[in-house]
Design goal:
The protein is α+β, with helices and mostly antiparallel strands and 159 residues long. It has a domain of 48 residues. It has five helices and five strands; from the N terminus they run αααααβββββ. It has a three-stranded antiparallel sheet with strand order 3-4-5. Strand 4 and strand 5 form a beta hairpin. Helix 1 crosses helix 3 and helix 2 packs across helix 3. The longest helix is centred in the first third of the chain and has 19 residues. It is globular. Bound molecules: zinc ion (ZN). Zinc ion binds next to helix 3.
Length: 159
Amino acid sequence: MIKHHPQQELLVSHANGNLPLSMAIAISAHCDLCETCREQLALFTEQAANLALNPDSSHAANDTGEELMHREYVEVQHSGGNQESALDIDAMMAQIMAQPAATNVPNNAPIDVDIKQQHYTVPSVFRQHLARPWQILGKVSRMRFDVDETNTRASLLHI
Ligand SMILES: [Zn+2]
């Protein structure tokens, strides 16, 4: 039974991709296990996406023709782009296509962890981080994650 939930600001930051990796892992894992926060996060993610895609939507109803024309002009200029950026995208696509094909394992499937002869299924967010050996510290076992942050450590604990 989960009794502690992340504060709403943390969910909002996570939805906007603003959290350091260590916190993002923790929030993702929590939301995997907690339906309440998962639903909230889905809502915040949708809001963040809407805001990113339509930054003007909050006052769209007040648009005058002049403003609309101005915006179209800006968009045309923008999409006109230059040769260089088109080439960059081609190069990037070629690089992506050269990667080995993805396996069929769904990325969001829970993963299995074995510790002290016990078997656990843990949230898929840990998939890329279960790389180090367990450190057995008495009743507590710890697997450190490489999060590359100077002031933060992230670990999976078995207690
Ligand atoms: Zn929760």
